[in-house]
Design a protein that fits this description.
- By secondary structure, the protein is an alpha/beta fold.
- The chain has a single domain, classed as Vaccinia Virus protein VP39 (Rossmann fold, 3-Layer(aba) Sandwich).
- Helix content is 44%, strand content 19%.
- It has 12 helices and 7 strands.
- It has a 7-stranded mixed β-sheet, with helices on both faces.
- Helix 1 packs across helix 8, helix 3 crosses helix 4 and helix 8 packs across helix 12.
- It is globular, with a radius of gyration of 20 Å.
- The N terminus and C terminus are likely disordered.
């Protein structure tokens, strides 16, 4: 195994700006996401959302809404009045989200919900300053430059407005990611693009991002969930069909994708034989915060004004 060769390969890909796009993986996972990821991790998402207030009439921005698990929950909490502006890069995910949200909005004329396809960084730049009561980022801040995205979130929030982030921690699925790194180290040519994610090492790291962006930190905590997959084949199926391996499809040589999967599966089988179990944890962090209210200021105009994008 040559880690030096892998480092050299990664450097060349960085220089050539060969970066993997996770959109194809999320499109592929969209039909299975609510069978694999949402039943396992969705409860943690909902619990995180419960830590920020949502009132009827609020304007809520959701970045990377996925299949709409949190979108639907936000709509329910708005209780028929308010605005939800949500975005995701995956058309497959948005199609599923639309199917969830539409029945909740049909009999609610006071509720405006817009689902947009696009990049969350570009999307939030088009939202007016001081126009949102809450911004939600579920399992996606890692695909941005977090301090820069949070600075935009601070801009669009009204004074006193809140933000909630839930994100996978850097040590999640460690046996799997270590195995993948070993496969690439043994044959760096298998890696054709870099998976660029900014997974935090801890909730404290995310809290520092908040502070750098001018946001006050209200809650920061860690969590972990053992995924319901205890054989090498089941682990690989879960990470592929849950979106947890997003970026893999464009990060490896397409003609040798199955070869990579076979080698990772063999590595997991060795761990299972050695340890007698495969308990793969999806570790995560939750951080909530708020935009400080300046002296003499209030939350400003809200609710009935609505906002626009672009």
């Amino acid at each position: 195994m040559s880690r030096l060769g892998l480092v050299a390969r990664a450097l060349r890909l960085t220089i050539s700006r060969s970066h993997a796009d996770p959109t194809a993986d999320y499109d592929a996972a969209s039909s299975d996401y609510d069978t694999f990821f949402s039943p396992v991790m969705g409860g943690h998402s909902t619990a995180a959302l419960a830590e920020v207030p949502i009132s009827p009439g609020d304007t809520v921005v959701e970045l990377a809404c996925g299949t709409g698990h949190l979108t639907a929950e936000i709509v329910r909490r708005l209780d028929g009045r308010g605005t939800v502006l949500a975005v995701d890069k995956s058309s497959g995910m948005l199609e599923v989200a639309g199917g969830k949200v539409k029945p909740l909005t049909e009999a609610a004329p006071g509720l405006r919900v817009e689902l947009s396809e696009g990049d969350m960084d570009s999307f939030i730049q088009g939202i007016p300053s001081a126009s949102a009561d809450l911004v939600v980022v579920g399992w996606a801040i890692c695909y941005s430059k977090p301090p820069r995205l949070l600075a935009q979130i601070e801009r669009v929030l009204r004074p006193g407005g809140r933000v909630m982030v839930i994100e996978t921690r850097a040590d999640a699925h460690k046996a799997l990611t270590d195995g993948l790194e070993r496969v690439f180290a043994d044959d760096p040519s298998l890696l054709t693009s870099l998976i660029r994610v900014s997974l935090p090492k801890s909730a404290a790291a995310v809290a520092r991002w908040f502070t750098k962006a001018g946001l006050a930190v209200d809650v920061q905590r860690e969590g972990a969930q053992v995924i319901p997959a205890h054989t090498p084949a089941a682990v690989l199926e879960w990470v592929q069909r849950s979106g947890a391996a997003a970026g893999f499809k464009t990060a490896v040589d397409n003609d040798r994708e199955q070869l990579v999967l076979n080698r990772v599966e063999a590595g997991l089988a060795e761990i299972l034989a050695r340890q007698g179990s495969l308990d793969i944890e999806h570790t995560f962090v939750v951080v909530t915060g708020s935009k400080p209210v300046r002296a003499g200021g209030g939350r400003g105009a809200r609710h009935d004004e609505g906002v626009g994008v672009g």
